Amino acid sequence: MSNSHYDICIIGAGPAGLAAAIESSRRGLSCLLLDRNKKPGKKLYATGNGRCNLCNEHYDRDCYYGSDFASEIIYKRNLRDFVTEYMDGLGIKTVSKNGYYYPMSMQASAVVWALRDAAVMNGVEIISNSEVSAVEDKGDKYIISYSGGKTAEAESVILATGSPSAPELGAASYETLYSLFESLKLEYEPFSPCLGPVAVREDLNPVAGVRCDAEISLHIAEQMERGELQLTADGISGIVVFNMNEYMKEQAHNGHNTIHINLLPDISHDEFISRFNTFRKTSPSRKVLGFLNGFLNDKLAMYHLNRLKEEGSVNDDINVSESEAELIYSALTDWKLSIGGFNDETRSQASAGGIATSQIDPKDMHIIDRRELYAVGETTDVLGKCGGYNISYALYTGFLAGRACLGGSL
Hints:
alpha+beta, elongated, seven-stranded mixed beta sheet
C-alpha cells in the first residue's frame, strides 16, 4: 500500500489530462497523473490516421451537435487560435490542410511527445498501467484507489478518463467508468458509441472499397453533411458518415431508417442532361456506362445502371433516351439506403455521454458545489464531429482545469 500526497491527481493521460497536468505543474503544484495504459496518449497516437487533426478553421454550434455547454465555450474562446498557439508554445508548428490543422510533421507522435515532455519537465509524476477504481471524497482531501491495491491522496482531482470508444487503443470499459463516477456520486449520461460506420440492409458487395465525394441527408431535412463516403460490403463509412452518425441514431429511433445519398453534389439536373445529349450526338454507339464513368467510379456507375435495368427503368445499354437519363440522374442524386444497425465502441472514434454538463461550470470545468473536483475532455457529455473538434475541446478544457484548480486564476 502507498499513501503519497499530491496537490493534484489527474485521472487519464489523453490530451485533456496532459494539458491539465502541464498547466497545474507550471504553477508549482505537485501533480500525479494516473493512466491505465502502458504510455500516455495511446489513443492520440492513432488520431487522424496517425497525423493528429488538432483543430479546425470552422467552429459553430453544429460542430458539437448543438451542445449549449460546448457553445458557451467556443463562443468565448477561438479554439483554433488557442490550439495553434498552445502547440507553438510546445514547439509544434501547425499547418492547415483544407481547414483541418495538423502538426507540420504530420505525425501524431510529435504531439504526444511534446505534451508528455512538457508535463515531465515540469515535475509531473506519471504512473502508467494504473487504472483508477474509485475516488473517495474525505471532505478535506480525496483518496484515489488504483491498480495493485495502491492509493494516493490529493487536494484536487481532475477527471480526464475519456470514453469507452476504441478499447484497442486503451479506452476504459463502461463498467470502470460508471463505477468511478458513482464512487463520486456524479450524475452522468450513459455512453453511446458514435463517429463510426453504419450498417445498411442493401448488399453493397459490388461497390465495396469504393471511395467518393458525396452528400448525405436524412429525413430531418436540415441535417446534411458532405465529404468522403467509403463503401463496404455491409455498410457505409468515412467522415461524412461518422459526422451524421448521431443524427442517424436519432432518426432511426423515431422510426425513419432511410439515408439519402447524392453522388453528384456539384452537377445540376440541367447540366447532366445537357452533357448526356451531347454524348449521344458525338458517341451514338457508345454504351451509357461510358458517359457515367465521366462522373463516377466505374464500379459505382455499373452498380446503379444494373439496378435501374433490373427495375426496368433503363432498357438498353446503348439506346438510352433522355427520359431514361433523367431517371439515372434521380437515382444518382437520391440513392436511398436503409439503416441496418450501428457499430459498438470497438469501431467508434468517440462516444456521446459522460458526466452531465449541468453539473460543470464552463468557465473552469469544476463540478459545481463540489470541492476541487473537475471533469474535462471526453469524460464530459460533449461530442464533437470529426475534424479536430474533440481534441481541441479536450486540450482547452484540460488547460482551464489545470489553470483553475487550487485557487489558480484564468
